[in-house]
Amino acid sequence: MSESVERAGAEREERGERSDQGYVTDVAYARQFVAELAPSMLDLVAAMNGVDAPPTDSFDYCEIGCGNGDTLATLAAACPGGRFVGVDLNPEHVEFANGLAAGGGLGNVRFVARDFADLAPGALPPLDFLAMHGVASWVGAEKRAELLRIASARLKPGGLLYVSYNALPGWAALEPLRRLMIEHGERVGGGTLERARAGVALAQRLCDAKSVYFASHPTAQSMLALMQRAGLRYVAHEYFHAHWQPMYFADLAREAAATGLHFVGQSPLYLNVHALVLPPALKELAQTLDDRLAFESLKDFALNEFFRYDVYANGEPTRSAATTRAYFDDTPFGTLVAEPLVQRELKLPHYTLRFAGPLFDALIPALARGATTARALAETPALAEFGVHRIGDALQNLALGGQVVPMRTRAPSSRAQPTRGLRHCVPLAYNRAILAQDLSREHAIVVASPATGNGLPLSMLEAVCVRLVTEVDPDDEAACAAWLHALVARRALRFVTGEGRSSEPAEIVAAVLRELPRFREARVDKLVELGVLAPTPA
User: Fold this and answer.
1) What's the whole-number mean pLDDT along residues 230-254?
2) Which whole number is the average pLDDT over 352-360?
3) pLDDT tens figures, 391-432
4) Distance from the CA of 532 to the CA of which of 239, 297, 399, 521 falls in 20 to 30 A?
5) Cis before 169 (ω within 30)
6) Mean pLDDT, all residues of the chain
7) Distance in angstroms (rounded) separating the CA atoms of residues 274 and 48
């Protein structure tokens, strides 16, 4: 950290601004949902790497640096058997998160406004899962060591730690961009948002002028474009912490190992498969590496890694191919979309995954009809010839390609009072609260899916259609049009229609009415399977 940044932090403290040891607290972070934090996804990472994982039906979970609580509240709604605790330094974050939980009727999550280092010894129960999204990049070395000590002390043996962070070497080219914004922001003065606004404006001016730095570093241009899309709250928290520090994987892995936390794997899932991540020219070199940590470091340079989503286990994990085999043979998997929307090809940085041939032609329709296991599928006439292990391998390929997810096989029963005469309702109080919020493009619309134990992002169009089919008879076009006109009169909505973006009420109503038949045919049954919708009692 530069002397100028340290000096600026001290000067802000003297002016009475909230700094909390260099961490930005005068600006609330942007709302976000991170699907990788779900227990089911952490278990999936562990299983792909041959490691036994905690249960996902009854467990204790903590997120340190939980922000506004969107991720944790959604997971609590999707996993009623879990017990969740969110910890954040910013009281504004925690107040919002507690309101989110209360509005959704969640009794299995609580949020605490506190520095994680000040947690009392009994503040957290023995944990199955502990998550820290981005926090490790925003604190100094001493605080990061405290984070790892807490993880080691509070996780049960075999419990999983999720830690994500800005990674090197990818961020090396971006440190000058951060320095530029901070230095200019300090000259302008004001609160963090004002400094961030000034810093981004200067950087954009230099980029537009085709300065050599931006011309030489296309990644800096891309990151500046991301800042413009994500907004100043993102910029303030991503760049303006005094202790901002991207890290090499090897350094963090060594620090974690010193406390008894050992690397298991990472997201996205395909990054756990050695054959899919390195370019062909490096495969021979990779064969000379004698351990996983050395391979990970090589991979980060091959991919110029910017951000890592890593999973660690408390205690030295035992890796076993039999563990991976048992997981993919016996865990139910299903799709998040109807069969025609399942992708049959996925392009990776160096390779392309193709889900084609007789096995996938029979497997994908079966999974799209409902979640099931490889063992159960092997007993069906259409798939019996392939055997349970080949089907399990195909499930693994579909999972690392993002086309299937681990699921429960039974959707939850309806707990909502449906509008009289309608065929569907929204069973979870939390989802009803989310759908009743202002539908904004400033943050994602994510509802809880009890079938997956995770959140499910909805487009604004899908969210409006969910509300429409549960509040109005969708067969009554006049009633639907009237409902939509009333909705857009109350809220300023912007939709992507066939003609592009639109905020005109008449165009929005027409677009939704055009989309509604397709939504009912292609999405309603799947949303019932996922637990977002439920049939109403006859």
Assistant:
1) 87
2) 95
3) 999 999 999 999 999 998 665 554 555 555 678 999 999 999
4) 399
5) yes
6) 88
7) 12
Helix H or strand E segment including 132: strand 127-133
| Contact indicator for 162, 132 with CB cutoff of 8 Å | yes
Q: Are strands 261-267 and 307-314 parallel, antiparallel or unpaired?
A: antiparallel
Q: Report residue 385 as tokens.
A: 């010839």
CA dist 233 → 114, 385, 443 (Å): 21, 55, 12
Amino acid 56 reads T
- Indicate the residue type of 530: L
499-534 pLDDT tens trace: 555 567 788 888 889 989 999 999 999 999 999 999
User: For every residue of 140-203, which 3-state class applies, written as one string?
Assistant: CHHHHHHHHHHHHHHEEEEEEEEEEEEECCHHHHHHHHHHHHHHHHHHHCCCHHHHHHHHHHHH
Report the length, in residues, of the chain: 538
Q: Which of 153, 171, 151 is nearest to 161 (CA)?
A: 151
CA–CA dist 363, 116 (Å, integer): 46
Distances (CA, A) of 140 to 158, 356, 484: 27, 48, 50
Name the token pair of 378. 């092997």
Q: Tell me which range, 289-298, 330-339, 436-445, is most confidently predicted by mean pLDDT.
A: 330-339
Look at the pTM and tell me if it is higher than 0.70.
Answer: yes
